[in-house]
Amino acid sequence: xxxxxxxxxxxxxxxxxxxPRVLAAxxxxxxxxxxxxxxxxxALGRAAEEAVEAxxxxxxxxxxxEAREIVLTSGATEANNLAIKGAARFAxxxxxxxxxxxxxxxxxxxxxxxxxxxxxxxxxxxxxxVGRDGLVDLDRLREALDERTLLVSIMxxxxxxxxxxxxxxxxxxxxEAGALFHVDAAQGAGxxxxxxxxxxxxxxSLSAHKIYGPKGIGALYVRRRPRARLAPLFSGGGQxxxxxxxxxxxxxxxxxxxxxxxxxxxxxxxxARIAGLRFRFAVRLGVxxxxxxxxxxxxxxxxxxxNLTFPGGVSAQAIMEGAPGLCISTGSACSSxxxxxxxVLRALGLSDADARSTLRIGIGRFTSPAExxxxxxxxxxxxxxxxxxxxxxxxxxxx
Length: 399
Fold this sequence. Notes:
Elements: E1 8-9, H1 20-26, H2 28-31, H3 43-62, E2 70-73, H4 76-93, E3 100-104, H5 109-117, E4 124-128, H6 138-144, E5 149-153, H7 167-176, E6 180-184, E7 203-207, E8 218-222, H8 250-288, E9 293-294, E10 305-309, H9 316-322, E11 326-327, H10 343-347, H11 352-355, E12 358-362, H12 369-389
Parallel strand pairs: 1-11, 3-4, 3-5, 5-6, 6-7
Antiparallel strand pairs: 2-8, 7-8, 9-10, 10-12
Helix pairs in contact: 1-8, 3-8, 4-5, 8-12, 9-12
C-alpha cells in the first residue's frame, strides 16, 4: 500500500498541494483581519490593502514585471479569456484593421475556445499544428504572421506533455509583425525562468494553485510600456485598473504572493531534485514495462513531467483502476469528463488507441524518492495484470 496508507500524489499538473508556509501566511487574513482590502477608510482595510499590494510585488517579481502591471483574477482561465478577448475587443473598438489571432492546436481549452469564440465577432482564428515533439514549427509560425495579425497566444509549458515552447524566438517574430504576444504561463511559472521583458511578452497568465498556492486566484500581466490595451470582460466597481472589477480575496492574494516568492527563490533547487526523481521513476518503470513510450520532446520539458504510452493495447483507465493508491491522470484536469482521447496527443500524431493508453505523471515539490519507487512498481504491476486480460488487437482493424 502507499506510504502511511495515503495515496501517492503524482498529478502536480492538475494542481499542487498548498505549501504549509503559504497556508501559514494566509491564515491571519482569514481570522485576525478579514477586512475588505478596498475599504481604505479604516485601519483594517488599509492593512489588508497593504498586504495585497505586497503580494502583487511578489507575483510581479516572479516574471520580471512591475507590480502595477499585475491584474489579479480568479485564475488562469479568466486571465486567458481577459487577455485574448480583451485585446481583440479593444482593438475592434478602436477600428484596428488587424483581425488575425494565432495560436497552437495544443493550447489549453480555454485559449482555444476563446479564440474560436472571437470568430463570431469578425476575427480570424489561425490554429497551427505542432511537430511530433509537441513544439511549434517556427517556420509555420513565421508564415502565419503578417500585417493583419493582432495577437499570438502560445503557452509556455504544455499542461499534458510538459514541453517548453521557445518563447524567446516566438517573441521576436511576434514583435517583428507588430502584434501582441500572450503567454499562458500557468504550467511554466515556478518551473522555468520567465522574464516578460527579455521574452517580449505583452500579456501573461498565471495561476496560484499550480505553484503550491491556493485555488481561486490568478493574475494577468498587462504590459504598460508600450501599453497593451484591453477591454474588460465585465462591469463593476473598477478595481484592478478597471480591467477586473470585484472584491479581492485578501487571504488568497497573500497566499499567491508567498507561493510566487518561494517559487522564485527555490526554483533551481526544486528542479534539480525533481528531475532526479523523474529519471529514477522513468528508469524503474522502463525496466518493468518494455516498449514504454515517452511523448513530447524529452529534453525541452519541465522537470516533473512524464507523458507515457503503455504498450500492449492496455487502456490507461485499466491501469489506473489497477493502481487505486496512485493519484495520476490521463491528461488535462479541465477535460477529465470527456471520453474522447486527448486532442493534445492526437496533435502529436498518436492514434486513438495509443492516446487511450497514455498516462500523465506530474512529480512535485513534496514527492519523495520512496514514493516514485513505489509508484513505478504499482504502475508496472497494474499494467502487467491488465495486459494479461487485454485481447490482442488486429493491427489491420480500423479504430
